[in-house]
Design brief:
single chain; 454 residues; alpha+beta; Outer membrane efflux proteins (OEP); 4-stranded antiparallel sheet; two-stranded parallel sheet; 11 helices; 10 strands; 14% strand; elongated
Length: 454
């Protein structure tokens, strides 16, 4: 009984494992975008860049805060320097009363040499420094904050680019799957018709050419289905990479192309007021210009002095009899550049010209963005008109094909007419799906131009 229970438990565990391994992740376009923004490797790295930039602000700030350092040192002097003071009078040898010549001479002793240090010693120095003034530090602190702003804007741009990319890939998969569905249905109809025509040929009602023609049509459709299948696999793999999913993960897209098309508000997209200030690329250039100006200002501050204060305390394990060095020291240091043969002036001129280049780039992109928006609006309107025309063409070509197929089965139409109407229908379907893809892609491009990510 125990063995049977264990066996059942193992089978249940294996069953649960197989179910979880085959779990399908259902994704709408919105959830797919959210998945990419949370798990895509490029987005994660961009978020790490923003955190690095924030740490850089504190790193730069810490330069102007008090700095405490400790230094230990062991010394061993081979020969300790000495000072000799010659003979001296020994008061203990002075006799009472009067002094004879012998007594006077006996009162003098040789004082000998005095060591001016110790043979070996260990010292520890503690130094506290404080930056009082530095033009480079002030500008560098400002630049680190602007750099953090630049990294945050780069993250926003990465998210906007990823949103556009996922939207396009998602719709590309939908287009491919719809194309496969239409081709498969068409292949099924052709194979069914082929079976009927073969029977009719066996009874002598149609010619061998009609059978061969349908064989060619069926073979062509099978090849097209296989090509679309491979394209779908590639598109799904690309989408998984963008979403940060493993290759063995199975996903299913829940949106339909018609659902996405119904969300497009053409009037709103084409009539919105546009300003370059609301575009993320323009925002990045504005921040780049700020950094170029700060770089120019930093180079100019190299003409200013750098002032710092320090306090030093020294502890010795052994102290000599005569120590002329104080254990505590307070000081102020000033560094002032005087002359470097014009090199500094040349660097200042270079930074100024780089700042002017950044200003020119910003102005050029600002004007170009307005032109891009006008062109993209016109392109979206044109592609939407094409979509509506292709939708109508698809319906008409489908009706023509259905009527021709009926006539062909009745012996009124030829196999060549059937093949031509079928090719016309397949081309109309392909144009229709392509028009949907073009509209969605144009819409995504226009929305990215409008968005600054805030």
């Amino acid at each position: 009984m125990n063995f049977r229970l264990r066996l059942i438990s193992v089978l249940l565990i294996l069953g649960v494992g197989s179910v979880s391994a085959q779990e399908v992740l259902e994704l709408s376009l919105t959830t797919a975008i959210e998945q990419a923004l949370n798990n895509n490797t490029q987005i994660k790295n961009a978020e790490l860049d923003t955190q690095i930039a924030k740490k850089k602000i504190w790193e730069t700030t810490a330069i102007g805060l008090p700095q405490l350092t400790a230094k230990g040192q062991y010394t061993n002097i081979f020969k300790v320097p000495e000072a000799s003071f010659g003979p001296s009078l020994n008061p203990n040898l002075l006799p009472s009363g009067y002094i004879t010549k012998d007594d006077f001479l006996a009162a003098y002793v040789d004082a000998g040499a005095i060591a001016l240090g110790v043979k070996e010693n260990t010292t520890v120095d503690f130094t506290l420094t404080q930056l009082l003034f530095s033009g480079s530090y002030i500008v560098g602190l400002q630049a680190s904050k602007v750099y953090a702003q630049l990294s945050e804007q780069s993250l926003i741009k990465s998210k906007l680019d990823m949103t556009e990319s996922v939207t396009v890939t998602y719709c590309m998969v939908l287009v491919s799957e719809e194309s496969r569905r239409v081709l498969t249905e068409n292949l099924t109809n052709v194979e069914k018709t082929l079976t009927e025509i073969r029977e009719m040929y066996g009874q002598g009602f149609v010619e061998k050419t009609d059978v061969d023609q349908l064989e060619i049509t069926a073979s062509t459709l099978r090849s097209m289905v296989n090509q679309v299948e491979r394209g779908i696999e590639v598109s799904y793999n690309l989408l998984k990479i963008e979403l940060g999913l493993d290759d063995n993960k199975t996903i299913r897209l829940t949106n339909k192309l018609e659902d996405i098309m119904n969300t497009i508000d053409l009037a709103s997209l084409t009539q919105n007021q546009f300003s370059a200030e609301q575009n993320i690329d323009f925002n990045l250039l504005q921040t780049t210009e700020k950094l170029a100006k700060l770089d120019y200002n930093r180079e100019r501050t190299e003409f200013l002095p750098t002032i710092s204060a320090y306090f030093n305390h020294t502890e010795r394990l052994k102290k000599p009899d005569f120590d002329f060095q104080s254990p505590n020291m307070l000081g102020v240091s000033v560094s002032l550049p005087i002359f470097n043969s014009g090199g500094r002036l040349a660097r200042v001129a270079q930074k100024r010209m780089a700042w002017e280049q950044a200003q020119n780039n910003k102005e050029y992109v600002g004007r170009n963005l307005e032109l891009q928006v006008r062109q993209q609006r016109s392109d979206l309107i044109s592609k939407f008109d094409t979509y509506q025309n292709q939708l109508q063409n698809k319906k008409l070509s489908n009706d023509i094909y259905d009527r021709t197929l009926i006539k062909y089965k009745q012996g009124v139409s030829t196999s060549l007419e059937l093949m031509n109407t079928q090719n016309q229908y397949l081309q109309a379907v392909s144009n229709y799906f392509q028009s949907i893809f073009d509209v969605i892609k144009s819409k995504a491009n226009l929305e990215k131009l409008y968005s600054k990510g805030n």
